[in-house]
Amino acid sequence: MTDPLLALRPWEAPEVTSWGRLAMNAVDRRAGALSLDGDWRFQLLPVPDAPVGGVWSSAYVPGAWTMQSAGADDPPQYTNVRMPFAEFPPRSPAANPTGVYEREVDIPADWSGRRIVLQVGAAESVLLVHVDGRPVGISKDSHLAAEFDLSSVVRAGERSVLRLTVVKWSDASHIEDQDQWWHAGLTRPVLLYATDPLHLADVDVRAGRDGGLRIDCRVRDARGALPDGWCVSAELEGELLTQDREFDRVNAEDERVSDFLGEARIRTTVPEVRTWSAETPELYDLTVRLHRPDGTVADTSRHRVGFRDVEIVGRDLLLNGERVFVRGVNRHDFHPLTGRTVSYEDMRADLVLLKRFGFNAIRTAHYPNDPALYDLADELGLYVVDEADIESHDHAHEIADDPRYLNAFVDRVSRMVLRDRNHPSVVIWSLGNESDYGAHHDAAAGWVRRHDPTRPVQYEGAAKLDWAATDDASDIACPMYAPIEDCVAHALSGRQTRPLIQCEYSHAMGNSNGTLADHWAAVESTPGLQGGFIWEFRDHGILQRVSDGRPAGRAGAGLYGNGVTAPGHRWAYGGDFGETIHDGAFIADGVVFPDRTPKPVLYEHREIAAPVRIECHRHEGIVLGNHQHFRGLDWLAGEWELSLADGRVLTAPAELPDLRPGETAAVPLPFEVPRTGGETWLTLRVRVAEDQPWAPRGTEVCVPQVRLRGPSVSWDVPVDGVVRVDDDGLLVHPLLTAAPTLSLWRAPTDNDELGGIAARWRDWGLDTLVRKVVAVRQDGGRTTVDAQYAGAAGVVRHRQTFTPVEGGIRVDEEAELPEDFHDVARVGTVFETVPGPDLLEWFGQGPWESYPDRSAGAPVGHHALPVDELFTPYLRPQESGGRHGVRRFTLSAPDATGLTVELDEPRQVSVTRFRAEDLTAAAHHDELVPRPGCVVHLDAVHRGLGTASCGPDTSLPYRIPAGVHRWSWTLRVL
Ligand code: IPT
């Protein structure tokens, strides 16, 4: 006999979103639940209706089988927009891996007479539930839990066989076409719980900044009509609130309420309430109890309540009446060992890191994240844009108005709202991502607006048609990757009708995020702009064993740290599991590496978001400002640091003034600024003064800096000496294995490649320039070498003049780029040193990597790092390791031999073990072989990074014009 669930063929029936599934609710069921996590019997079938009966292996729950040995025949696959199969919606491919999970469950004897519920945390993408061979239910919606009432199919004290069948591809896959790895399995915990037949069916808590608290409960009795005399009580921080005994009257007077549905309402006002915000995540413990007519407790639900208001006034989004800046990031549930399954500890670590780097908001791109994430956001203080699991990208237009999918859209949005509405962190509902705009969105927005008028709703696809519209499915204009100039123009146009907060901006793929500081300068100075969400949090590199190409697995062998993998492993991206349809390294576009090592951009972001800033005013001296929205500065401590060019560094404790948000004050410096010592910088190191939930005391929060004095020019006086060049006009020097030559090329960044810029450079022949010496002249001690560098697009003239100076050689360089070379990667010098030097010390910006358009977070100072730690191991090797604004540097070996270079002006410098061609040739970090010496670049100019892999290219001020470029440097032996 055909199984009725299979007979429905629910994997090709978009109208079927569930069967036998309980309504979503926000009742907390963790206490007393029976976890079913662990190893389950497992079979991977080729198609959903293949007979079960082969050999069982085992699979771990929660987990995706694509990441486990049981799923060796069905590895992960990465596609962005395109579907991994050719079938049109609602069809799925004939080959459709289907995982059958099975295990025995012993139903506790003391559950007799109780209502027994199965909760499946997440199943990707269609779930069929059977108990002892009997059909129980169906669910879709891969990132929300599904609950089924098992009371009639299991018996307390007896053993049952629970089978969860998960079909990988379905009609639902077409609306789960997010830019991420395709996985399949039971990716969140599975549990069983029991309640009294008389139970809380839902609890809805609303708490405002005026202390107003509103609790609405739905009550049901599984036996039928509700008994007379039940009531609900609530306890806030140990204090009992009014019990609602009004239900009978409500039932009697309100014809809409039947004997079968009880509604209890509790209203109170908490005096002198401590309000919740991302800066002040004040939470109150709330326990809601349902009492039987005899007063005993039938059901309990615990919540943590944050009192806060979200509202849109005019074109501003206000949190507790304040126009807050949204410093957000897009976050997927991702882990390099387990794929879509994330642990509480991992989520906490994600959020703690975000807080430490100045973020205050998360968009749960592009589906409701694991439930624990919202608890953590409440507790640590992060605003959440909660996004429904809808992205129909590849077939967006067909689906947005296909009536067969209407139910699925409303189902997914409403279930998310019903799950998450009690979280103070959730401030905005999002209808999904990249799904065109159709009637389904209006239907879903209508449901949300009616059901939860306390929060705005947003949908990028609706608002993009006209940012100034007032009648679509979005209360916020939330574009993606809009040039900041367009946002400013809109805010100044007089047409702005609603907040403008980019749902995605500044694409963090590889070495990227150029002009973040310029972007924020515009946001902070333009009323109407409030920020946005960087794309994205984490590189989705899966830890892969190179030997057999399989995911390394849960145990974590092969993790190393600092962003790189242990030998024999690599970070896999699209194509690395043998997929023929894939989108390569586009999956690696986070501000942290797969192992959560911060990328340099995070320091940039931290500084841009600094709660404390300093300025140097001619009359007032140093002025300090509190740039928070809600807090004073008492949770912070400071230390002044004065860096002089002559190498002196003075430090002194800083007294942070008592400033309210938005206030500034002049502050005295606790030391005299020396009159000598050259260029002088004042840095305020700001640290956490008392332990915060996200940072122990002493954690650095920001390092604002001002320049107190400019450089005093000291340039070398020529002395008699000898400079040797060979027949090709190349400098001969005992410490250099490759003489200084002109460099116009860099190993293309992901932005350079995907933005088409590298292709242009290759067309011009920048990567294969041929050098030819034209003339070598001696003039006194001075040697001038004229050379030409020929590429397909023309010839670059280059002159080097070598002058012996006290203890070394001064090199003056000049390059003339013809008009056709108007936008190159860099204009500068490259040379290579002998093996030995392994430490770089420099006076300039640092200590982390910085580039011309990403240098706001790297203060000027005296920095030192081992050469091997200067390089940033972006997943696909590319230009990296640069330091901006370098005035001089020393490269030394352990025996103190080495060289020092003094630059004429602050310049872009990089010291690595790799030539640009080494980086260009490698696809993964593990393929790189470090050279024994150092490859040193000194650039007169270096093209900014921009964000062209998705979004605007490097902005004009950071591009390199044609014409003449001049730079000078002095090389000395230590
Ligand atoms: C945008 C997507 O929303 C996001 O999921 C991701 O793919 C991002 O781009 C790029 O990494 S959509 C893009 C077509 C603008």
UniProtKB/TrEMBL annotation:
It catalyses: Hydrolysis of terminal non-reducing beta-D-galactose residues in beta-D-galactosides. The keyword NAD does not apply. Pfam families: Bgal_small_N, Glyco_hydro_2, Glyco_hydro_2_C, Glyco_hydro_2_N, LacZ_4. InterPro entries: B-gal_small/dom_5, Bact_Beta-galactosidase, Beta-gal/glucu_dom_sf, Gal_mutarotase_sf_dom, Galactose-bd-like_sf, GH, GH-type_carb-bd, Glyco_hydro_2. Keywords: Glycosidase, Hydrolase. Its EC number is 3.2.1.23. The keyword Hydrolase applies. Residues 707-972 form the Beta galactosidase small chain/ domain. SMART domains: Bgal_small_N. It comes from the Bacteria. Belongs to the glycosyl hydrolase 2 family. This is Beta-galactosidase. It comes from Streptomyces spinosisporus.
